[in-house]
Amino acid sequence: MSLRANRNFLVALPAMAAMASLTGLIASPAHGQELPSLINVIDYTKLLPLLPEAPAGWTADKPNGSTTDVGGFKLTNVHRDYRKGEGDNVPTTAISILDSAANPDYVEATTTAWKFTTTSTEGYSKSVNLDGHDGFETFENEGKHGTLWLMVAKRYFLQIETQGQDPAALQEWAKRVDIKKLATIK
């Protein structure tokens, strides 16, 4: 599987999990059984402050977020885009946080899929651990496109996506997010 295919597959995982849940592919509890995790997704307003301000020399869009309930399947997501300079080919970064408390099986399946390393002339895909948080990092040499996913507190997916930057920028951006605070939000 190529790096682009790996990255596209991992990016598509949240959408696939949502669709699987909505179409009944993920088992539902017995009638009358409660799903407390569905009740406990965090409102997006609690996660927005964790999206960092732009570093020196960069600009940031206004952060955005949402908490959605689609037939009992709740999802919270926040996002912010960053740019260094003007024009089409300037370095960019996007930071997203997804609360996946509604689907612990999805969390387990995704983090299990992160347990491999591939290196080629095109770039790499590898498991990482940042300050005790398991993750997965990909980098494509062409276009200098990188993505880092971290699992925080067995519920939050932190995603950093960079364009036009070196691979080290992925973890530098991740360190701008207060991951310790994120881990305490419930």
Which class do the helix and strand fractions yield? alpha+beta
Q: Level of helix content?
A: 25-40%
CATH topology: Protein Transport Mog1p, Chain A
**Topology pattern, helix = H, strand = E:** HHHEEEEHEEEEEHH
Low-confidence stretches: 1-39
How can the largest sheet be summarized?
A: 9 strands, antiparallel
Nearest-angstrom radius of gyration? 17 Å
Distance between the termini: 37 Å
**Integer count of domains:** 1
Estimated share of beta-strand residues: 25-35%
What would the average pLDDT be, to the nearest integer? 82
Keywords:
186 residues, alpha+beta, disordered N terminus
What does it look like?
With 186 residues, this protein is of the alpha+beta class. The protein has a single domain, classed as Protein Transport Mog1p, Chain A (3-Layer(aba) Sandwich), CATH 3.40.1000. It has six helices and nine strands; from the N terminus they run αααββββαβββββαα. Strands 1, 2, 3, 4, 5, 6, 7, 8 and 9 form a nine-stranded antiparallel β-sheet that branches. A hairpin with a 2-residue loop joins β6 and β7 (133-140). The longest helix is centred in the first third of the chain and has 20 residues, at 3-22. It is globular, with a radius of gyration of 17 Å. It starts with a helix and ends with a helix.
